[in-house]
Amino acid sequence: MPTAQINGKEVSVPPGTPIIRAAALVGFNIPHFCYHPALSAPANCRMCLVELEGRPKLEPACYLKVEDGMKIQTESARVIAARKAVLEFILINHPVDCPICDQAGECKLQDYYMAYDAQPSRLQTAKVAKAKVYPIGPEVVYDGERCILCTRCVRFCDQITGTSELTVVERGDHSEIRTFPGRELDNAYSMNVTDICPVGALTTRDFRFKCRVWLLTSTDSVCTGCAKGCSIHLEHFQGEVQRYRPRFNPEVNEYWMCDAGRLSYRELHTNRLTTLRVGDDATLSWPRAARKVATDLKARATDGSRTAFVASAQASTETLFAAHAWATQVLGAEQLYWAGRPDGGSDSFLVSADKNPNRAGVVATFGEAIATRDVSQLLAALEAGSIDTLVFMGSELGLPAEQQALLVELAGNLRHLVVVTSHRSELSDRAHVVLPLATHAEDDGTFINEDGIVQPFQCAYAPRGESLPGWQIFARLARGAGSELTASTLDAIQSALFADSAAE
């Protein structure tokens, strides 16, 4: 492997490694605009110029590969002067409207200006006017005056999605990003261009003027839009999710996520159910409610063969583990089913046809046999009259409208229907007992994606209202019945779940 010195530190890297990556390995972050690790390196912004011993000119660190014996300076006087000049050139026609720009607070142009330039403009003429609030696609808005023509967005559409909607038009200081005639930026991953845009030129219609980024708290989480389970930054303010952004995960989604998954955060706050209800009583506290529900279930579910439990493929693996223990050991249910969203569209990149984040978790905790026992099988059992007590997790039925209405009608006429859910549904409206479930934004846990990869997510904020994490709900129901689950804390559940993998 070639070995070089960067600012006096020695580093050995695989052949073909660009200087900018090698520098990062030894703790030197070289400023850049056009470079992105997942895209080609056109070296057109000139912000990453570095000085090489024995070479008369500064060289672009994003393009030049490390060679054995190189001695590189990333912060020399010549390099700093070059960066300052590049920034001044970029800012000649920039509107400098940071106070009203959505990118303010996470803008690389702002950061680099403060680090390397920080001088008033010497421009004495009017700035070139370009497009403002240009609808470049259904989800993305373009501001030509803020654009620095790094071409990341163009290369993303060429090299990642392969849809090639974008190009650079005009020349010189009149150059702008545009779609090809008769087209718009409407591919399934279009909003990724706003993530990789280093300035405020590309913004999403969804987040535009919504919340200042410095007010947001970012929590590592997982997208629940499909079984791919893209790693995300769940960003929230005052207990409300404002946006999802992709989080780098080389095993799952790299730097990207689909638009549908990105906008799925809206579901967290739609038809949210946060009130505990037992019969017509919505005033019981959790301890009293757990005892009453457990007692009623024990009295009514005397025959386990007529008692059914439905696990949700939207729930965390930890919740499913506790649910299985409770349903089989305490409730004594002999009929086990699973429910979730129905299958949908897919592609060859990230989007999975399975729209449930944890179908694999259901199988891992309930066993392979449950895989074929979905809500259609539950409906058949209800029609046959072989169920009189039903505990149903979630609000997704995954059936066509006519069958869904029939299931709700039949389940609502049972002797006892308990629904454990985070969102209101027709089924929860018909239930005798409703136990409010925390969303994945309000809990710590894991999902297992379609490739068998276990992915943790973290609690972003406290559960709304009276809702609780699912594993806590089933532990409380067990105690209400005078029992104790083998594992009733999150740490104990995770230890039991992942003991084998930890040993490896």
Q: What this model shows, in words?
A:
The protein has 504 residues and is an alpha/beta fold. It folds into 3 domains: 3-90, Ubiquitin-like (UB roll); 124-215, Alpha-Beta Plaits; 277-503, Rossmann fold (3-Layer(aba) Sandwich), CATH 3.40.50. It has helices at 19-25, 77-90, 108-117, 152-159, 192-196, 259-263, 286-300, 317-330, 359-366, 375-384, 401-412, 426-430, 470-480, 490-497, 499-503, and strands spanning 3-6, 9-12, 49-52, 59-60, 71-73, 134-135, 140-142, 166-169, 176-179, 202-204, 217-222, 231-237, 240-246, 277-278, 307-312, 335-339, 389-393, 416-421, 433-436, 445-448, 454-457. The chain has a 6-stranded mixed beta sheet with strand order 14-19-18-17-15-16, sandwiched between helices. The chain has a 5-stranded mixed beta sheet with strand order 2-1-5-3-4, sandwiched between helices. Strand 18, helix 12 (426-430) and strand 19 form a beta-alpha-beta unit. Helix 8 runs parallel beside helix 13 (470-480).
